[in-house]
Amino acid sequence: MNSALPPDRLLLGPGPSPTAPSVLLALARPTLGHLDPWLLARMDEIRAGLREVFRAPRGTALALSSTGTSGIELVVHHLVERGDRVLVGVSGYFGARLAEIARRAGADVVAVEGPWGRALDPDALRKAAGGKPCKLVALVHGETSTGVLQDPRPYRALADELGALLVLDCVTTLGTAELEFDAWGIDAAWSCSQKGLACVSGLAPVCFSERALAAIKARKQPVQSFYLDLALLLEYWGGARAYHHTASSNLLVALHEALRLVLEEGLPARWKRHADNARVLWSGAAERGLELLVPEAERLPALSTLKVPRGVDDAKVRKTLLERYDVEIGGGLGPLKGQVWRIGLMGHGSSERNARLALGALALAMAEAKG
Question: Domains in the chain and their CATH numbers?
Fold first, then answer.
């Protein structure tokens, strides 16, 4: 067998982001049983830490033993029953994924599409709803395919008008941008471990309001999934500590350390660091004649989309960055394929050094691609 030691890449794409060194050390600690009393105590601390990071002191939070998409599955399949009307804002790849998961849950989906690269208009969703009751109003807070930050606050009033719960995809915003679960009236949200939290992939934080939990209890039919059954998961994460699945103690210990780092830095300071370093990237791109896809007021601090200049081979540039400079950035998805580069400055990877390094390496790779 060949060596399994990976190369040392600088991850400046849409995720995963660079893992904090102390998180890697935590990951290497001895493996424990999934019902070990020491681990169960750390899981209690993880739940408390997640409530702090979501800004949900009254919320119910835990981390699923799976990736971020499982968070969408769990939230949608618990809050939606067949025939329920669901209003979904779609202005990128992950909004479309959210709508598709709702369709597969049997929802009557009203997908309100907007231009990729712009925030959605609440009035467009209000008009599409037509005043008819809905079960959910569903949004992507940070659309990773476009680099757009969607303000969810105006949608609470819309959800109230429609008798709906408000659910939010926070995969790229948890730990990177202002998020106020309780204050904004969010009912359910999901994220991942490998982006703003600077942990490794494999865990999906989720959070529920009391209103959302009441809606789950009022379901007419049980949730189809056993693995993603919230009631069973909560019995493992609290309650009777009943066996549900063999959770990875190593991943949970790593997430515990990642959350400790986030809270040690402080959320306002962390949000400011991401915003400041994003502006370094944006101003440096402008100085080099590179255009950004998203208007500044709607940009996601953790993920920026730069337009590929005319005549430049997108894939060749990214290949050069990876193979010659060990720097990973992302390409465009869907209609943006070949048209944008997605540069992530997330979690531990959000620094002025990385912003300037990304721009310098990109300039060198473009020059080589032209040559």
Answer: 10-15+267-370 (3.90.1150.10), 21-263 (3.40.640.10)
